[in-house]
Specification:
Layout (H helix, E strand, L loop, with lengths): L6 E4 L6 E4 L18 H12 E2 L8 H5 L3 H14 L4 E7 L8 E7 H4 L7 E6 L2 E6 L3 H9 L4 H9 L6 H14 L4 E7 L6 E7 H27 L3 H6 L2 H13 L8
Antiparallel strand pairs: 1-2, 2-3, 4-5, 6-7, 8-9
């Protein structure tokens, strides 16, 4: 049974707090497109589906696209936590030439969450204080569609036409500090051969993959119940998870063959 817990997710502006509900627990989640090749649009759809404010209103896709990348990733983690998850397990294969061991690493979601709503950062360069805006989902979409050199990325965030290398390096470091969960650096040791290795995890991609699997699992449950009881997809999707699981347990107990004729 899926937990009914709720987790707070900050808006990019910091004015309002949105509340996250678990994914793959509502009929509307069947329509959420999750595509690994389109991570920004997938995140847009998930946030618009699974977040709501105190009055119950959900943010629209255009609004969440304007949120900072930090706030968007934090909200994805909040949705995962709302489903009862406290950790995210990532599978790796050993890099050693003579070892093919596959092993898992556990990521603490609470540690990854920033729970902040800043939209700018300050950083020093040669004793001078600099300020830049944090990138948004719109920036991320543009940079993924058209790979952008670092100096142009820096220029857009600094509102400067020609930042020098020292400013670019300082900004890059400040952005990494503001959003440490985006690319998690893990120091791991293979349990089979003992080889130490560093791995980098794209947390957004990891969470999107998990949500896609949850969606597919829900669709499989719906398909099985529809074949067995001839109920409509929407009716099955609106059922509480415990009821779907109860009917599925009944099918298992009765030896129902779920193979499609």
């Amino acid at each position: 049974m899926r937990s009914a817990a709720r987790a707070a997710a900050p808006s990019a502006s910091g004015r309002d707090a949105f509340v996250a509900r678990p994914f793959a627990t509502d009929a509307v989640d069947l329509d959420v497109p999750i595509d690994a090749s389109r991570p920004v649009a997938s995140t847009d759809a998930l946030l618009a589906s699974c977040l709501h404010d105190a009055s119950g209103r959900r943010p629209d896709v255009e609004a969440v696209r304007r949120w900072t990348v930090v706030a968007r990733l934090d909200a994805l983690a909040a949705i995962r936590e709302a489903g009862g998850a406290r950790t995210e397990w990532v599978v790796f294969q050993c890099k050693a030439a003579d070892c093919t061991e596959r092993f898992e690493a556990e990521i603490d979601l609470a540690v990854c969450r920033t729970k902040g709503a800043a939209t700018t950062i300050e950083f020093p360069v040669d004793g001078k204080a600099m300020r830049a805006r944090l990138p948004t989902g719109a920036d991320q979409a543009r940079w993924q569609q058209e790979p952008t050199p670092l100096h142009l990325v820096a220029a857009s965030l600094l509102d400067s036409t020609d930042p020098d290398p020292a400013v670019i390096d300082a900004l890059d470091a400040a952005l990494a500090q503001a959003d440490p969960a985006r690319e998690l650096k893990l120091q791991l040791v293979c349990p089979a051969c003992g080889t130490a290795q560093q791995r980098i995890v794209d947390l957004e991609a990891q969470l999107l993959g998990t949500f896609a699997r949850e969606q597919q699992a829900l669709l499989r449950k719906i398909a099985r119940l529809a074949r067995a009881f001839h109920w409509a997809e929407a009716d099955i999707a609106r059922m509480p998870a415990w009821r779907r699981d109860c009917y599925l347990d009944r099918l298992d107990a009765e030896g129902f063959d779920e193979a499609v004729p």
